[in-house]
């Protein structure tokens, strides 16, 4: 498995006690497959993504990303693991207004000190993969909401991650554009062999996922049928 969470428990301070955000959660996601995580607000979905992304260290349990045990890693090592092996698609694209679509992607390689020429080639390849080859030199204000989300997805794939974590990718899109984005995520998961976890409250398009699980009160249920 490319992403494994085993008996993960995460708590936060809450007054005089602790609030349990994740309660002995276990999840395995293989390369080339997409798992959807559904549940109401406050159920623990965001905490699950944060732990999988190594942004938060759980109280107990194992988190393994692309064969790397994350327990005991230094802050610098966790940052390197995120940069090199984890792609994150945020709910809001948060594109830099002064940069073109291609430059939004190229800056990711700049952060890892890669070749500028290779970064440009990779950026154009990914923009082509998400159907935006002709929009490479457009800035965010020249793109639709769905197109900005596609740039967001392409950017997350820029450093060839093993794990792709996606937070509510269709929340700001209408039904048709939301379906198109999920079709894109499914296709890219197969094409780039990522282990993809998608958090969503929208059950309308879950037939596109390889598996679906539900969260409630910090617990992960058995797989759902959709």
Helical segment count: 6
Using the coordinates shown, work out and report the CATH topology of the domain at 3-97 and 162-220. Rossmann fold
Biggest sheet strand order reads: 6-7-8-3-9-10
- CATH superfamily caption of the domain at 3-97 and 162-220: P-loop containing nucleotide triphosphate hydrolases
Count of strand segments: 10
Largest sheet descriptor: 6 strands, mixed
Low-pLDDT parts are none
Features:
single chain, 226 residues, alpha/beta, 6 helices
What can you see in these coordinates?
There is one protein chain. The protein has 226 residues and is an alpha/beta fold. It has a domain at 3-97 and 162-220: Rossmann fold, CATH 3.40.50.300. 33% of the residues lie in helices and 27% in strands. It is built from six helices and ten strands; from the N terminus they run E-E-E-H-E-E-H-E-H-H-H-E-H-E-E-E. It has helices at residues 45-52, 75-85, 101-111, 116-129, 145-156, 175-192; strands spanning 3-14, 17-29, 33-38, 60-65, 68-69, 86-89, 163-167, 195-200, 211-216, 219-220. The strands form two sheets. Strands 6-7-8-3-9-10 form a six-stranded mixed sheet. A four-stranded antiparallel sheet has the order 2-1-4-5. Strand 9 and strand 10 form a beta hairpin. Helix 3 (101-111) packs across helix 4 and helix 4 crosses helix 5. The protein is globular. The two termini are 23 Å apart. The mean pLDDT is 91.
Write the layout of secondary structure elements.
Layout lengths: L2 E12 L2 E13 L3 E6 L6 H8 L7 E6 L2 E2 L5 H11 E4 L11 H11 L4 H14 L15 H12 L6 E5 L7 H18 L2 E6 L10 E6 L2 E2 L6
Parallel strand pairs: 3-8, 3-9, 6-7, 7-8
Antiparallel strand pairs: 1-2, 1-4, 4-5, 9-10
Helix pairs in contact: 3-4, 3-5, 4-5, 5-6
